[in-house]
Amino acid sequence: MLSPFSPPALTARAVRDFDAARPQRLERALGDLAEGFARFSLAWALAWSDLRNRYRGSVLGPIWLTLSTAVMLGALGLLYATLFRMELRDYLPWLAVSLIVWNMTAATVADSCACLIQAEAVIRQLPLPYTTHALRCVLRNAFTAAHNLPLIAVVFAIFGVLPGLEIFLLLPGLALLGVNALAGALLLGIVCARFRDVVQIVAALMQIAFFMTPVIWKPELLGEMAWLLPLNPFFALMETVRAPLLEGGGGLAIWLAAFAWTALNLVVATVFFVRFRGRVAFWV
278, 279, 283, 282: which is closest to 28 by C-alpha? Predict the structure, then answer.
């Protein structure tokens, strides 16, 4: 008997028409993506439910995350503004955007490693597209990051920071982050489902990336070596969000690098998704 979550008239036909000699991996992968986006509301509801369950029984709920981020922002701002000999009114708004964007990125990467493993029971029992689980991961972390957005507005108001018309470039910047988050969730979800040790490798690499990326330090501190920063994918993508708010939209090199890294991420994720999608149910 088909589950009510089954795509209408597709599940039975897909099983009946499957030919091991002609697996049609590309068609099935594209169908998974199309069906996952068609059920976007389901991924939204599941992500929202995850957030509510995470803070069940808490008095302040996700406000704790906002408070902890505010304390960290104030402490790091005072410390590194002194160490780097910068004006607090120039450094703190920059740090606020950087820290919040990085926390969202790092949390999404870490969550992506387990997005399919955590959905093991659902994958084994219901014919939901894997794209739904990846979207659920991305939306869950987007909801969490949204609780910190008021901190940026507060810091900007305190120090009188007013973005110009370049703020409209924030929309394509956020779109690039979203595309990379989804591609990364599908890629890391599949790889980590097969090789569980990759989770620890990714965690170690993210710690290194934090110090190698201008999050708590500014790019100009590198001096003549600053031109190498677009080779860091985290910097390129972060700058597409940070620059429209603080730096006049960023340079052409930054946007070209961000699009190039996005294209590479999409290609690698697509290759893995098409090739190994049919094995995920056996790996989780």
Answer: 278
